[in-house]
Amino acid sequence: MKYVDEFRDPELGRILAAEILAAVEPGRHYKFMEVCGGHTHSIYKYGVDDLLPANVELVHGPGCPVCVIPMGRVDDGIAVAREPGVIFTCFGDMMRVPGSEGSLLEAKAEGADIRMVYSPLDALRIAKQNPDREVVFFAIGFETTAPSTALTLKRAKAEGVTNFSCMCSHVTIVPPLRALLDSPDLRLDGFVGPGHVSTVVGARPFEFIPADYGRPIVVAGFEPLDVLQAIRMILGQLADGRCEVENQYARVVPYEGNQRALDVMAEVFELRPHFEWRGLGFISQSGLKLSDAYADLDAEVRFSVPGVRVADPKACQCGEVLKGVIKPWECKVFGTACTPERPIGTCMVSSEGACAAYYNYGRFAREREVV
Amino acid sequence: MAESIAASEERSPSVGRASTAASEERSPSVGRASTAAPISGREEKILGIIETARGKRGKFRDERINMAHGAGGKASQSMIEGLFVPAFGSGTLEAMGDAGTVTVDGAELAMTTDSFVVKPIRFPGGSIGDLAVNGTVNDLAVSGARPLALSLSLILEEGLSADDLRAEVEAIASAARVADVEIVAGDTKVVERGAADQMYVCTTGVGQRDPRAGMATDGIRPGDRILLSGTIGEHGTAIMLARGEFELDAPIESDTRSLWPVVDALLEEAGPSLRCMRDATRGGVASVLNELARSSRVAMLVRESAVPIVPAVSGASEILGIDPMYVANEGKLVAFVAPDAADRALAALRSVGGCECAAEIGEVRTEPPGMVLVETSFGGKRVMDQLVGDPLPRIC
């Protein structure tokens, strides 16, 4: 595939891997967090970690939109989905996320009309095709997906679609990163910055990471060469004694972000005072809700939502995994009680979740040579 | 929690140091897999527990049937292994082949059955009628049986247009002619509007075991080569695009066809060196390899760059975020061949019309048993596991 294969060239990969090996100080252990679940997925899918020296460790961060949705929020979604006359729409990955009493997939099997969509516009189309039904879109994701939800809501308002509403669980990227950096049990040498989010917010919002916390960050793309190059660039900063925001993904990410996307988000959304994150707890000003101008399209206004806070299952260590404190396999229930087909924690649900990615792709023990 | 943090910090730096020294000694092999971190004893132990758990027969514990049970992945497998096999278990069913065996006066007959609920019923490259014939014919063919006869059951939804029914009857008749099988029995039911979606088709097929075949689902040996009869992912991709959910347009047609000529050519050339065959339908090539790796207690290594795929399918998969190795085919088989016969078998495959892209995609190994590994085209290695859920229901 043109313009894709170029970023997966194994020969260039070997050259970058050699440069990385040359750049690491022997005897020093490096811990870098890839913030975004898309990176985690790429790293496992292409076997990128196979090409890294042993003393460069990648820690999987909180940037998987499905992984961070708390159980109570799933319960709220199921409660709305069970309301008479409702067609509840969500992205496919969300269907298997466990709530306290089952997932949306199970609620669907029990009779709720829950449909998978690929875009919020699909949900709006369903609303227009079913004027006698209430269609609710369960919106999740970081700033990457929030603009498309915002545009859909704008269109619904402009077209006067009254049977459409949005249950907004959008979150923002900077507050959880700050929360992680404030966490005393976290030791990181640098960050592979989230590429897709940055196409919207730009690279500038990450300047606090070098400025306030003294850690380098390189915003990176999602092809395997992108990830390797970003690691090479972080190592370069460390070797030079620099500490700054660099943009490896300049072919897509403008340093100042996408102003039009930011404008439409500002119009449609406002910050919640606080939002609960799976495993990370409440983080202030980290979630989005619909602004007053769009309150009539807010499913939480239109329906009665239980809004009960459900504690994460005791055995589940998603929080520690998200913070990079433990590796997926170090969780007490990893691979035994918690598997992709019966996930306990959300890290096991989405293919971008650190646990699912490790279970699906990384389980093969690297040192057990294949005979 | 404090306990496990302390534990992990104690462990990881020492692991890191030990292998850094090792990798320096091996510095000529820069960027090779050998520089990756070794795993600790505890990780090794946990991986062992997981592999043991995977090797066990699935338990059926779900309270309700959901779409994943029909997707051919782990949920389907636990329903089959945990409910159907214990209930009906007989020698031939437990072998979990594509067709069972019935012996009548010393004559070995193969028998199989399949239901087709594809939506939409017509799609580029075929229709539900083509699938209903070819799907059942192919299950017989890959079991080493020459397809002889089919039965046909139709479940029709009230209100189905007669033209749609006529078109599918013609498709069935034509596919049966091409596959050289006779439709010898049939049944029709009509259900109320909404109780079915347009039409469902069930076919049962009988075939005669070919004397040249000596195959078994547990007959695969380390060293065997894995052959694939052509490009992957066309059927599933054609269906996804035909549903119009993605607003993508690409010239991709279903690959539905009878595989008997392909099997015939392989049996003629490789005969007893042909260990096992499967048609890579629902769940794709990845699911076939996983099932067989488990049943034969072997490992498989697939070279991603060797797997044939047309650019339109790889492009659509890329956009949709789907791995084409898990996408359904309706006219492709995977064959396991003893190493000394592999080249001849591949040449025989390629000589069959429509199989010009056939390729050797990997080989069978011993360790780790039950696992399928992929050497990515980027140079890394990873597990290619069974499919868990299915984002794309009803593709056949």
What report would you give on this structure?
The complex is a heterodimer of chains A (371) and B (396). Chain A is of the alpha/beta class and 371 residues long. Chain A has three domains: 5-64 and 183-247, HypD, alpha/beta domain 1 (Rossmann fold); 71-173 and 257-302, HypD, alpha/beta domain 2 (Rossmann fold, 3-Layer(aba) Sandwich); 318-359, no CATH class. Chain A has 14 helices and 13 strands. In chain A, strands 2-1-7-8-9 form a five-stranded parallel sheet. In chain A, α2 packs parallel to α14 (354-362). Chain A is globular and about 65 Å long. The two termini of chain A are 33 Å apart. By secondary structure, chain B is an alpha+beta fold. Chain B has three domains: 48-61 and 69-86, no CATH class; 99-209, 2-Layer Sandwich (60s Ribosomal Protein L30, Chain: A); 225-383, Phosphoribosyl-aminoimidazole Synthetase, Chain A, domain 2 (Alpha-Beta Complex). Helix content of chain B is 36%, strand content 22%. Chain B contains eleven helices and 14 strands. Chain B has helices at residues 2-25, 41-55, 74-88, 91-94, 128-141, 162-179, 234-242, 260-270, 284-296, 311-320, 342-350, and strands at 100-104, 107-116, 122-123, 126-127, 145-157, 182-191, 199-209, 225-228, 274-279, 299-303, 333-337, 359-365, 372-375, 381-383. The longest helix of chain B has 24 residues, at 2-25. Chain B is globular, with a radius of gyration of 23 Å. At the A-B interface, α1, α2, α4 and α14 of A face α1, α2, α3, α10 and β14 of B.
Main sheet specs of chain A: 5 strands, parallel
Biggest interface and residues each: A-B, 66 and 70 residues
Work out the strand percent of chain A. Answer: 15-25%
The whole-angstrom Rg of chain B is: 23 Å
How much is the radius of gyration of chain A in Å? Answer: 21 Å
Helix and strand sequence of chain B: HHHHEEEEHEHEEEHHEHEHEHEEE
Arithmetic mean of pLDDT of chain A: 88
Order of helices and strands of chain A: HEHEHEHEHEHEHEHHEHEHEEEEHHH
- Beta-strand fraction estimate of chain B: 15-25%
Number of helices of chain B: 11
CATH homologous superfamily of the largest domain in chain A? HypD, alpha/beta domain 2
Task: Supply the CATH architecture of the largest domain in chain A.
Answer: 3-Layer(aba) Sandwich
